UniProtKB/TrEMBL annotation:
Domain of life: Eukaryota
Source species: Meloidogyne incognita
Name by which UniProt lists this protein: Lipase
GO molecular function: lipase activity
Any Gene Ontology biological process: lipid catabolic process
Coiled coil: none
């Protein structure tokens, strides 16, 4: 039996209004140039969070970031790969922005990152974060909690995750929540053996199948 994957450190960066603005302008330009009524979005890792930010529009919690009106009516399919929608267990502590209570990491910011904390009284031990627990309410960082209020970022959402992801963690849990599952997901795709990065590159055929499905069939398939 192979040894369980070791969880690696998160990105040294945190979510910023500057990056969100740049990405939103790109999406707006695509819509304007093509004249398309709707587009599809495929996002990976932190890009999943950025995609949700630009879809939902103006987000005051992120330095009063003015991105424009929501794009929800213009997003047909959204494929979210290896996202951390409820936080990362490598960011689980009582203070935020730390790893093992020692090193400050911007990506684990309580405000603008992937911090997750033990809000349920019975889960005070941060080592329980990745266990298969009943979900705790309101235990994500500020920006993630805001994004998770929405369940309609797109008409059809597919979420991909892997048991061999050393960034997200093999259980994909964050105090009970399956962290790679975007709120409102219609299709969950679980893989074994793919890393955080090959989950993006080695699932192209599955991504294409989802993009090629007619929306009416997709919704019926999940009912």
């Amino acid at each position: 039996m192979d040894a369980p994957p070791i969880i690696n450190k998160p990105s040294p960066t945190k979510l910023t209004c500057g990056t969100a603005t740049r990405l939103r302008r790109f999406v707006d330009a695509v819509l304007e140039y093509t004249g398309a009524e709707e587009i599809d979005i495929i996002a990976h890792s932190m890009g999943v969070t950025y995609a949700r930010i630009i879809i939902q529009g103006n987000i005051w919690i992120l330095h009063r970031c003015q991105l424009g009106v929501p794009l929800k009516g213009k997003i047909n399919k959204f494929i979210a790969i290896a996202g951390a929608n409820f936080g990362l267990c490598i960011c689980a502590d009582s203070e935020g922005e730390t790893i093992n209570d020692t090193k400050r990491v911007p990506a684990c910011s309580k405000e603008f990152g992937f911090w997750v904390g033990p809000s349920c009284p019975e889960y005070t031990d941060v080592s329980l974060c990745s266990e298969d627990l009943l979900p705790c309410e309101d235990n994500s960082g500020d920006i993630l909690a805001k994004l998770n209020y929405s369940r309609d970022d797109a008409k059809y959402i597919a979420s991909f995750w892997s048991t061999n992801d050393t960034i997200i963690g093999p259980t994909n849990r964050a105090y009970g929540w399956r962290t790679s599952i975007v709120a409102g997901t219609k299709k969950e795709m679980k893989y074994d053996g793919l890393t955080h990065y090959t989950l993006k590159t080695d699932t192209v055929s599955d991504q294409l199948k989802i993009l090629q499905l007619e929306l009416e069939f997709c919704v019926k398939l999940e009912d």
